[in-house]
């Protein structure tokens, strides 16, 4: 019998001696060939992936297409996960528990964004018992009401309370990046209203849709192919061939954007970019992750990785590529105390920018490639990541990774390719999530990331006061709809379509449409503004070339439209009767301040109302059109 | 597992015996008088024990509410030394076991736990 440590050691040695070329030739040491990668098979229409290193223990798992991506209602994946190994039609949860204890086995159920995994680890000779158990769990669980109330619900609540800022931030980054599907939170927070969706009936329906021969894969690590084919056939007889109802399978689309969530206790910022999906040929992303790194791999040293060297004490930062079947997310996660997280986030983006500017030394590149290779080769080795990945590949119909080719691709990455990849990331839309003390945590724009076009377009209305500034939004890119509405309401200043709920903006708009006849009819005293308007209209009628230029110039002048609105509104207010006027004057008070940015520097902060008044006086004095 | 020792299953297995004893049983149920107070047979199960309390907690909210209503009405009637008007008596088809199936299930769970706690393992491999 060949024991596993010996094989692992062999593959490490092969890697260390830079034997990737040799590796490519022989595709792993011949003795290791069976152990290195999962071989897929179809046993009685059940998809099975297995590998056998002849060791004394076995891990057997059912990977179902029932992760949070596929759940039709929030919280169902979590519910189904907690219902695993509960009462079945044949035996009780207690009996399952005691029997497994007697056999020295371990049961686990967990989920990723795409897969739900029921896993059993046990001694090799107990394969029949555990095959039967797993099949019984997916085909015969009763989903009883009392178990839901007495066991499932309370455990979900306890786990919800443990969701920390890092997890919330990662979920928020996924939500910003993918909206629905992959954007669904991995674990609902205590604020997520799952109680209206999650009950034993909805979980049972979800189980019918998730557990069928078409939507599951059985993955075995350390079980012989013969044993599997002997036992899977009889025990998986009762598993339905097709799901009772199809789960949504919309393909993922990357959006990008920013989320900010206030939370006490812990702080986290996630900066994410489109990454490499499962089976995608993107060696640059893997090397980028290796180069950014973050977690030290050598004791008592931060190592060479950029993030480990960039972050300040009090915060940890690391880069990961979250690979899914049809999309990927390259995420830099920074967590720790608020101040340190802010500095860490700034430093991380700076590190990424330095890569995009080609500031990576050849030595670091070699190290990064070596680490990427190690990550690739050790990924399927001895831990459950490889198990889940093998199952996920099977249920999503992705060809398993060709190790030799992938290693070759990694070796082909050079500084130029890496630079181009980092540049593409920085030029695209980022997904940024900040969770914790929002007073301290930075906005994406402060980090120097591209604003998302989706959010930006809401602000970049042609009438926006800052549209001609070099930095187009004075507000950070991520002003949410709610915040923007608040700003608009506070300042009585319309941003555009949805912000026109402000009463003053409506008033001003009405006046501008009515213009001269209305004012004249009311016999209002109109100082310079009216004359100016009259002049402007006359000129427009004349359509002379210079005049048009002047008009454009005056439009392009900052605040011109808003100033015009303010002037018109003031005129209307003054023309009102005394009792209405007092009320209307109060409405016209505004607190909005603005600053002009030139050459990347913020100018003086001025009050908009005062600036308008000044400009009006000035234009009246000069008789100009500005 | 029945909630109390009973001859009923043995009697029900034998049609001739069932036929013989049914009138007696019906007379007894009426004579017991709980139906005249609007109660069901399962309302009479003594609830001062852990298993019954657990079974009560597993009732649906509607069943639980109805049970409390029946008990309070019966208590009131008992205080007033009255019985319900005849049209409000519990009809035989209403007198269904709503608690005993749950109780049986709980007794089975307890028995299984006892068995598992006191078993001897015979190793086969």
TrEMBL record, chain A:
Residues 529-551 are annotated as: Disordered. Its main location: mitochondrion. One of its GO terms (molecular function) is metal ion binding. Keywords: Electron transport, Membrane, Mitochondrion, Mitochondrion inner membrane, Respiratory chain, Transit peptide, Transport. It comes from the Eukaryota. Belongs to the eukaryotic ATPase epsilon family. Belongs to the peptidase M16 family. UQCRC2/QCR2 subfamily. This is Cytochrome b-c1 complex subunit 2, mitochondrial.
From TrEMBL, chain B:
It is a peripheral membrane protein. InterPro entries: QCR7, QCR7_sf. The keyword Electron transport applies. It is found in: Mitochondrion inner membrane. One of its GO terms (cellular component) is mitochondrial inner membrane. It holds the Pfam family UCR_14kD. Keywords: Electron transport, Membrane, Mitochondrion, Mitochondrion inner membrane, Respiratory chain, Transport. GO terms for biological process: mitochondrial electron transport, ubiquinol to cytochrome c. Gene3D superfamilies: Cytochrome b-c1 complex subunit 7. Component of the ubiquinol-cytochrome c oxidoreductase, a multisubunit transmembrane complex that is part of the mitochondrial electron transport chain which drives oxidative phosphorylation. Belongs to the UQCRB/QCR7 family. This is Cytochrome b-c1 complex subunit 7. It comes from Staphylotrichum tortipilum. The lineage of its organism: Eukaryota, Fungi, Dikarya, Ascomycota, Pezizomycotina.
């Amino acid at each position: 019998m060949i024991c596993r440590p010996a094989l692992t050691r062999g593959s490490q040695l092969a890697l260390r001696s830079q034997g990737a070329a040799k590796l490519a030739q022989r595709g792993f040491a011949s003795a290791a060939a069976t152990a290195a990668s999962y071989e897929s098979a179809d046993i009685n229409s059940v998809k099975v992936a297995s590998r056998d290193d002849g060791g004394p223990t076995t891990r057997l798992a059912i990977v179902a297409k029932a992760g949070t991506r596929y759940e039709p209602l929030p919280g169902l994946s979590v519910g189904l996960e907690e219902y695993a190994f509960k009462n079945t039609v044949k035996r009780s949860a207690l009996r399952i528990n005691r029997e497994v204890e007697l056999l020295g086995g371990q049961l686990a159920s967990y989920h990723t964004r795409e897969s739900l995994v029921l896993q059993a680890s046990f001694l090799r000779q107990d394969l029949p018992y555990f095959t039967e158990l797993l099949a019984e769990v997916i085909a015969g669980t009763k989903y009883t009401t009392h178990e839901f109330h007495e066991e499932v619900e309370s455990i979900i609540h306890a786990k919800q309370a443990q969701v920390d800022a890092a997890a919330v931030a990662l979920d928020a980054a996924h939500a910003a990046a993918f909206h629905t599907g992959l954007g669904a939170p991995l674990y609902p927070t205590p604020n997520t209203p799952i109680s209206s969706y999650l009950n034993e009936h909805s979980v049972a329906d979800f189980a019918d849709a998730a557990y069928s021969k078409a939507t599951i894969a059985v993955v075995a690590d350390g079980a012989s192919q013969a044993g599997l084919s002997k036992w899977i056939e009889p025990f998986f007889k009762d598993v339905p061939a097709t799901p009772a109802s199809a789960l949504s399978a919309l393909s993922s689309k990357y959006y990008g954007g920013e989320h900010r969530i206030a939370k006490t206790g812990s702080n986290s910022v996630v900066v994410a970019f489109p990454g490499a999906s499962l089976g995608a040929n993107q060696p640059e992303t893997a090397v980028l992750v290796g180069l950014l790194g973050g977690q030290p791999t050598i004791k008592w040293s931060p190592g060479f990785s950029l993030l480990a060297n960039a972050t300040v004490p009090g915060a940890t930062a690391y880069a990961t590529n979250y690979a899914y079947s049809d999309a990927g997310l390259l995420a830099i996660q920074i967590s720790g105390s608020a101040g340190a997280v802010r500095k860490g986030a700034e430093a991380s983006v700076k590190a990424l920018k330095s890569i995009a500017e080609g500031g990576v030394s050849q030595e670091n590149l070699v190290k990064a490639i070596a680490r990427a290779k190690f990550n690739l080769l050790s990924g399927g080795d001895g831990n459950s990541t490889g198990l889940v990945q093998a199952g996920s590949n099977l249920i999503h119909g992705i060809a398993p990774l060709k190790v030799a080719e992938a290693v070759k691709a990694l070796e082909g990455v050079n500084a130029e390719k890496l630079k181009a990849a980092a540049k593409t990331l920085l030029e695209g839309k980022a997904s940024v999530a900040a969770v914790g003390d929002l007073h301290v945590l930075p906005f994406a724009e402060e980090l120097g990331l591209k604003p998302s076009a989706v959010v930006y377009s809401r602000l970049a209305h042609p009438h926006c006061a800052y549209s001609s500034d070099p930095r187009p939004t004075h507000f950070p890119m991520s002003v949410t709809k709610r915040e923007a509405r608040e700003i608009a309401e506070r300042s009585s200043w319309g941003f555009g379509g949805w912000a026109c709920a402000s009463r003053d903006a409506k008033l001003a708009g009405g006046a501008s449409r009515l213009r001269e006849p209305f004012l004249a009819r009311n016999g209002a005293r109109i100082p310079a503004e009216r004359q100016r308007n009259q002049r402007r209209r006359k000129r427009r009628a004349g359509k002379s070339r210079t005049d048009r230029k002047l008009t454009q110039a005056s439009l392009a002048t900052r605040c011109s439209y808003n100033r015009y609105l303010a002037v018109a509104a003031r005129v209307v207010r003054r023309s009102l009767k005394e009792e209405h006027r007092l009320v209307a004057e109060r409405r016209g008070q505004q607190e909005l301040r603005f600053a002009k940015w030139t050459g990347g520097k913020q100018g003086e902060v001025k009050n908009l109302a005062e600036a308008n008044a000044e400009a009006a006086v000035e234009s009246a004095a000069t008789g100009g059109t500005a | 597992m029945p909630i109390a020792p009973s001859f009923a299953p043995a009697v029900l297995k034998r049609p001739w015996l069932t036929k013989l004893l049914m009138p007696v049983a019906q007379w007894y149920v009426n004579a017991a008088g709980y139906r005249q107070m609007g109660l069901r047979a399962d309302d009479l199960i003594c609830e001062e024990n852990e298993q019954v309390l657990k079974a009560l907690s597993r009732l649906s909210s509607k069943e639980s509410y109805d049970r409390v209503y029946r008990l309070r009405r019966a208590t009131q009637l008992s205080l007033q030394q009255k019985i319900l008007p005849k049209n409000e008596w519990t009809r035989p088809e209403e007198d269904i076991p709503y608690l005993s199936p749950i109780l049986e299930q709980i007794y089975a769970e307890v028995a299984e736990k006892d068995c598992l706690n006191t078993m001897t393992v015979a190793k086969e491999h």
